[in-house]
């Protein structure tokens, strides 16, 4: 192996041994004589208490490519782990991969070809993802990350164009991101975002502000495992809602509140179905009235100038929880009927 691989597949993990195996298998079955000198795996373990370390040791013994493993002495939080896994890497580019996700067959060679063909121009590659159930057996339909998706790759020359075409939530989905490691490490001022769960978004936005070009690779290269939101499990509903709003705070810091980029991100946040879906989900979970007051106060400064806030979010907040519980099985029944037909 050369001293410096072209691609480091960087996996931050914590207590995910049962899923990490799938991720590693999806990588190693794609390694061959032509690419084995170009790829390494880097794992930063956030002090897992399961058998993650033993699992990695087993894979290190049989892997054709280096597997670099670092284990923190204590859990330092997701953001620290994102930073650490890139720090321990050697590759020119890092593919950030959630330990519960997988790389689709052919994905590694596709990304290597893109880096070799466009790496002198592009610092951030975004890949398309397939959706799966928790067992990776059943496929789930996902919206395309690319707005007005015509099936073609897209090279964005500036941040405004990129933010206008790539769905907001995909900037936070680490497994879709392949980044120039040197440019990533050059970004300063990220410390205040450690603990936000979106330190990587701050770095990627900052790279874009510094003229890093973005390319969307319109191929399904990563598999996303559903029903497995670790932040929702750890922080519960309101904490997850607050994480989503960090897009706005980060955009304000990086681009400025009067920038075109900030306006795009703010509008996307309000118009996305993800936030409204969270409110409905929270209603079904029976959160206290005080939580909804907090959510409203958080959302109002951002959304009050948009019509959607008044005609969509206000009714969502005001509709009693029992109504959602009545309507939910009816809607699910209709969907199931359509699926059978």
TrEMBL record:
Keywords: Membrane, Transferase, Transmembrane, Transmembrane helix
Ranges of residues in domain Glycosyltransferase 2-like: 8-156
Transmembrane segments: 309-327
Keyword Transmembrane helix: yes
Protein name, per record: Glycosyl transferase family 2
GO molecular function: hexosyltransferase activity
Top-level taxon in the UniProt lineage: Archaea
InterPro entries for the chain: Glyco_trans_2-like (IPR001173), Nucleotide-diphossugar_trans (IPR029044)
